Amino acid sequence: MTHETCPPLLLRVEDLQVRRGGVSVLDIPALAIHSGQTLALIGPNGTGKSTLLLTLACLLKPFQGRIFFGEREIDARQGDFHYRRHVAMVFQEPLLFDATVFDNVASGLRIRGVGRAEIERTVPGYLELFGIGPLARRSARKLSGGEAQRTSLARAFVTKPKIVFLDEPFSSLDPPTREGLIGDLERILYQTHTTAVMATHDQTEALRLADRMAVMNEGRIVQIGPVTEVMNRPADGFVASFVGVETVLAGRVLRISDGVFAAAVEGGEIQAVGHVRTGEGVLCCIRPEHVTLSTNAPLSGSSARNVFSGTIRKITPLGLFFRVRLDCGFDLVAYVTRQSVESLALEEGKSVVASFKATSVHVIPRKTSSTA
Amino acid sequence: MDLIVEGIKKAFFLIFTLDTEVLGITLLSLKVSGLATLISLVIGISVGTAVALSRFPGRQIVVSLINTGMGLPPVVVGLFVMIFLWRNGPLGFLEILYTPTAIILAQAVIATPIVTGITLAAIQHLPANLRLQILALGATRLQMVWILVKEARLPLLAAVMAGFGGVISEVGASIMVGGNIKGYSRVLTTATVMETSRGNFDIAIALGIILLILSFLINATLTQIQQRERPR
Amino acid sequence: MKRFLKTRCMVVITAMVFLMGMALPASAAGPERKNLILATTTSTQDSGLLDVLIQIFEKKTGYFVKTIAVGSGQAMAMGQKGEADVLLVHSPDAEKKFIAEGSGRNRLIVMHNDFVVVGPSADPAAIKGAKSTPEAFKKIAAAGALFLSRGDNSGTYAKEKGIWKMAGINPEGQKWYQQTGLGMGQTLNVAGEKKGYTLADRGTWLALQKNLGLPILKEGDPILLNVYHVIAVNPAKWPKVNTGGAKTFSDFLVSAETQGVIKTFGVQKYGGALFFPDAGRKEEELGK
Fold first, then answer.
1. Which of A37, A318, B229, C231 fits C87 for a cystine, CB–CB 3.0-4.6 Å?
2. Which stretches of chain B sit within 8 Å of chain A by CB?
3. Neighbours of A367 (CB within 10 A)
4. Do C186 and B34 touch (CB under 8 A)?
């Protein structure tokens, strides 16, 4: 984390506990959410993601704990009304009202007593922003899944909330619709500098939208940190198994030639293939099984464009193969068979050469500048 | 069969000549049942919504009571209301027995559980998270309740029709507490019973037809409003 | 468009509430002193006589009479509970008990009409020539012919029971004996439909006879006399009773004027009087 760009603390949690039927379902000793950032809550179903969101949004009474919004403590027991007016929540189902799209989006404003004239001025802009401008007069009953969710999002954003809580907002959409919506949401979060906390069980969504990621298990946060850190250094076996073991590197596109681009990452350059523009931020994800290790430079016949020398930091046996973590200026993880380990005489501290193809790098464009 | 034809002819005759007595009876029926329905709506929608949205010990019992109340025999209600309103009964000091007010009271008691039960079901039928979504939009508790009631407006219109239908057609309680007094507490249903027992079948049928027409017109209007908003 | 609908709904609802608001105060009960609860029988009301008499009384005295038409039995039960101010009933034995137990006072004879035994024109039990009414009833029982009884608390049923007793027959539970639990007019209709015998007051029979197909088969027997009395509920037991009103009404019923109205009631419509005024006479004298 680059401390010079650390944004102000917007929401802070102390000793939060939620109980259901006497059993603790959420136990968060501490949590901090920074202004302008997106925090992804990731974890299996039933692990407390929704509970945490509802509690943070002051829609669920905690058993104990304190929540601070800026300097002020929120009265969580009374469903702090003033706080609720500064945040918004979007659920997995659109939960629209039986009215037109326009009326739905305007509902948050009407609840706040905003006058008709101002509503007429404000709402159309948000309809356009979320791509549902032409649907203004349509009844909510006649919308497709994607259109409905866009309406729900527009309804949440129109009140200019300080924080938006999203509970798996794309889960019930089909992949192409999801794609479009994620892209739009990413753009809007960036443009409006809205702080967001999003629950998801889709890693790719987290990678695309989040700056920081919190992995939850059985009501607790087991690891929290910048997305790349959590992905590259899972704290334990559970996190590792859940987030999927990939090397994730944040970088910026330097140049493009012949369909191949070079991205500068901390400690080097990566060559990859993808639709990017120079200067754009990207996340490069390399699966461990695509990384080849050898004791000297690869044979000239190989087409791997990415070749790095590095030192083995840790070798972990994983049953049929081994997990090898290297330091090449950045962390790189490779899977190696037992045979290779033996034939290459791999051991911690040894220098090796790692290589992987440009085509095996999974590229995720990132708008936000803070990918730390 | 010609008795029915006689009745139909008589009905139209009474309507078109605006027979004062029949007009009075019809208007009274409307006022009494209308007011009773209104009262039952106010109480029924509030209680129904409150029970639907809250959790408290004994809630199950309350819901069962409401559902039982929906099927309360009107005649039993009339009997109990009459006993309460007797001069020497607990509410005798109100001196409203044998007045239209007593009929309104009895009919309101009959209609309220119906409206409450339907409201309860309607609100419970809304998506579980809708309540939270409304609160998340910054609504106060009161705003939330109002929005939920609006969202349930289609089944609530059905509740209005059920409540009104139940009382406009009610006769047992209306006779017992109203006394069927000419020009004062005589409504369409009680007048029909009386004319039948007197043997004036043509008038009885006529009154019955007028009641049916009235009921139909009102329900047709409400249905039109309800169906206009029917989901796709 | 939606706003137009909303406005229209608002207008309709407001109009309705306004209408109702206007209606009720006008029809609320009049000042407390001037209310009079009269408990009487369905046959009295069904004949239409009460409508006429009450109208005259109200105009004359300004009282607002609430006529509650139930059976004689229920009327007296109401009197026993102090829920009525004055009774107009026709069940002499029960009435005497009512006075004896102190529930009522000032029992005055008002009028009488008579009962008739009607039945199918074919007269399967051949009661037409019977010497007395109990004998006619005996014949009906012997023939097992269908007999419709009101089986309620009415004066008519009381009279009917008395006749069975005199005939020494207990008809209860017999297949040919059916109890309707209904008013006089309806019971006559059932008898007409099923072609059975029944005991009815002449007034109601006259009003319905056109469509009934049930000719009179026995009449004139002194037993069949149906005497109406007006009784004031005893205020000693029930202080809330409107004693003044009860007295005014009783006096009104036995006044010469009213008796005159009773005498001529129904003559034009039915070709014969329905009731015979008896004020001042003794019960034993009647029928002679």
1. C231
2. 127, 129-130, 132-133, 135-140, 143, 147, 150-151, 153, 229, 231-232
3. 15
4. no
Judgement on whether residues C125 and C219 belong to the same structural domain of the protein: yes
> Residue B208 belongs to a domain with what CATH number?
1.10.3720.10
Residue of chain A whose Cα is closest to the Cα of B140: A81
The CATH number covering residue A111 comes to 3.40.50.300
A51/A120 same-domain check: yes
Tell me: do C96 and C124 sit in the same domain.
Answer: no
Count up the domains in chain B and report the number. Answer: 1
What are the C-alpha distances in Å from B100 to residues B180, B210, C175?
A: 9, 20, 43
Tokens of C176: 């040919």
- pLDDT-derived band at C31, boundaries 50, 70, 90: very low
Domain housing A278: 248-366
- How far, in Å, CA of A41 to CA of A30, rounded? 14
Chain C residues touching residue B92 (CB < 8 angstroms): 240
Give the pair of three-digit tokens for residue A130: 């979320």
- Distance, in Å, from the CA atom of C197 to the CA atom of B107, rounded to the nearest integer, reads 39
| C55 and C91 assigned to the same domain | yes
Does the residue B146 lie in any domain? yes
Q: Which residues of A touch B135 (CB under 8 A)?
A: 59, 79, 84
Structural domain containing residue C240? 34-112+227-285
**Mean per-residue pLDDT, C26-33:** 46
**What DSSP character marks residue A8?**
P
Contact B98 C183 (CB under 8 A): no
Mean per-residue pLDDT over chain C, rounded: 84
A97 with B135: Cβ contact below 8 A: no
CB distance C40 to C250 below 8 Å: no
Residues A81-125 have pLDDT tens digits of: 888 899 999 999 999 999 999 999 999 999 999 999 999 999 999
Matching residue, tokens 């920074």? A34
Q: How many separate domains does chain A show?
A: 2
- Examine residue A372 and state whether it is found in any structural domain, yes or no: no
Phi first, then psi: give them for residue C280, nearest 5 degrees.
90, -15
**Does residue B99 sit within a domain?**
yes
Nearest partner of C208 among C275, C118, C136, C111, judged by Cα = C118
Subunits close to A (at least 3 CB pairs below 8 A): B
Range with the poorest average pLDDT among A255-269, A297-311, C25-39: C25-39
Q: What is the pLDDT of residues B2-32, one digit of tens each?
A: 777 877 888 888 888 888 888 899 999 999 9
Is A201 domain-assigned?
yes
B104 vs B167: CA distance, rounded Å: 9
Rounded-to-integer distance, Cα A98 and Cα A273, Å: 46
The answer to the question of residue B230 being in a domain is no
What residue numbers bound the domain in which B36 lies? Answer: 2-224
DSSP code at position A338: H
Domain CATH for C245: 3.40.190.10
Q: How many CB atoms lie within 10 A of CB B194?
A: 23
Looking at per-residue pLDDT, the higher value among A116 and B195 belongs to A116
Strand C225-233 and strand C86-89: the pairing is antiparallel
Closest CA to A187 of A367, A371, A336: A367
**Surface-to-core class of residue A91, CB atoms within 10 Å of its CB (0-12 exposed, 13-18 middle, 19+ buried):** buried
pTM score over 0.80 = no
pLDDT at C143 over 50: yes
Q: Which of C157, C132, C162 is nearest to C70 (CA)?
A: C157
pLDDT averaged over every residue in chain A = 87
Domain match, A115 and A87 both:
yes
| C9 vs A110: which has the higher pLDDT | A110
Share of chain B above pLDDT 70, in %: 98
Encoded tokens for B205? 């049928």
The token duo for C221 is 């027997």
pLDDT class for C18, splitting at 50, 70, 90?
Answer: low
